[in-house]
Amino acid sequence: MTQLPRPARQQQPASSELAAALNACRRAFLAIALFSGMSNVLMLTGALFMLEIYDRVLPSRSVPTLVALLFLAAGLYAAQGFIDAIRSRILLRVGQSLDESLSLRVYDTIVRLPLKIGNRGDGTQPVRDLDTVRGFLSSAGPLALFDLPWMPVYLAICFLFHTYIGLTALFGAIVLVTLTVVTEVKTRHPTRSATQFAMARNALLEASRRNAEAITAMGMTGRIARRWNDLNRNYIAASGHAGDVAGGLGAASKVLRLLLQSAILAVGAWLVIHQESTPGIIIAGSILGARALAPVDLAIANWRGFVAARQSWQRLERLLSHLPPHSEPMPLQAPTKTLVVHNVAVSPPGEQKVVCQDANFTLTAGKALGVIGPTASGKSSLARMLVGVWTPVRGSVRLDGATLDQWSPEALGRHIGYLPQDVELFPGNVAQNIARFEDPPNPAAVLAAAQAAGVHDMIVNLPDGYDTNVGESGSALSAGQAQRIALARALYRDPFLVVLDEPNSNLDAEGDEALTRAVLGLRARGAIVIVVAHRPSAIAGVDYILVMGKGRQQQFGAKEQVLNRVTAPSAPPRALKVVPGEGGAG
Ligand SMILES: Nc1ncnc2c1ncn2[C@@H]1O[C@H](COP(=O)(O)OP(=O)(O)OP(=O)(O)O)[C@@H](O)[C@H]1O
Ligand SMILES: [Mg+2]
User: Fold this and answer.
1) How far apart are CA 389 and CA 115, in angstroms?
2) What average pLDDT score do residues 54-61 get?
3) Does residue 461 sit in the same domain as residue 396?
4) Is the pTM of this model over 0.85?
5) Does 334 sit in the ligand 1 pocket, CB within 6 Å?
6) Whose CA is nearest to atom 18 of ligand 1?
């Protein structure tokens, strides 16, 4: 994941999405606070038991009192154990419920983020961030926070025993709290850089996995491994640094706590010598003093987790407010008539440069357009904009008069078929992939799409026919097979606008013919087809041609006309320019 701009002020409500999810758990937190209160009161058992033994049982030498006290203490300890167990269980459920209410939203943002800021860094970090937050919530860390407010109570009791005992405990508390603050300051930076190195490391790992064949074939394994190792070393160093800081300060706090216990004992002994206190009080005071500081100890021990969770939380908050949930626009009728592209310019997500501009054309139902032009002329960019995944920076794309953003992505998707230049299928079988993972797939619609794409015969020849598993990203199929199945996926449930980006790049003659038949079939049923192509065979079925060059629409018009002009070298370039508006095909 990459740095997101800070959310604008007016997006404030969305930024509280996380807070709202946490707020939904407030009854659970109340319960935890209540149980923490009970647990902390019960925590006095040991100290009071000691006090009674020294100041009552020993002087009176009463065995029945001793036995009764022991049973009472045992009962109270059991109650405390029970309460602590419940407390942990509730906390675990809070983490789960938070995950439950946010995981879909987080997945949604992971898919949408590349469309907004481009494909940078490690895009799956938000899921790990959510894991970190949930993990911290379910750990002992938050319990320390619930115990902290009880510290003053214990200190007050120490003061009740004797001012000197209270003062000693208070001094210890101040030192420990200072240690906590130091831990906070010292772990913040290393924790953040550890996360950044982890993201870079994961991004490289993911790329290596995807390109394993190329890396191996060209002997790049060792070099990539060294790059990975460097990143990994940085990550380990940063997280080790955070661990060292937290570990060192944790050990110091533990020693301090032990020292404090003895210090209180010493102060008490001094008081007894001067006959200002009883032996029971010094021992109880020493236990209580240590008890008062235990939450600080626990807090320091869990501080690293806390800092990591807080940073994850902030990243998630920025992400969610940057990509607020889709509002559900009023459903529109399915488009059936026109596609109007008016003066459109588009930039890749997260980029400033315009890669396709001056696009101007109109197509009516039953028409097909071939988009041709040299490499990097902006053909795929135009295609991405036509299917609504890249938003135009200028101008508009309208289906039956409505701009694409008047549909929700889900609703728009039903009217659009898209075959991307780099086909990827999803883990699952052929039928599921063609049915766009509709659950359950509609067999009749799957068959119809396969027939329309002319790929039915090829599919039934696969080992398991429509049930053949395509493997991860379709890796169990040949490139041409995957492309033809993706064509069927684009045609599933008869979408109105079908955009095919180099649909024949992996096809043989038979595939080419099937493609042309598919385009003609689409036109016959009143769809609009746009085919991006390098090879002329792909545009056999189209009746209009758009020529892209240097990121601009150079020409648009009826196929023969444009092709004649393009192939006639003497034609003056100016005369070739198609005046906007002239390009209407309707
Ligand atoms: N995701 C992206 N981020 C940044 N720049 C991009 C991105 N996608 C495309 N571009 C740039 O936009 C320009 C047009 O790319 P596009 O993919 O549209 O070309 P194309 O005509 O489809 O080329 P080809 O025939 O090779 O598929 C290129 O200069 C490319 O570098
Ligand atoms: Mg392309």
Assistant:
1) 7
2) 89
3) no
4) no
5) no
6) 378
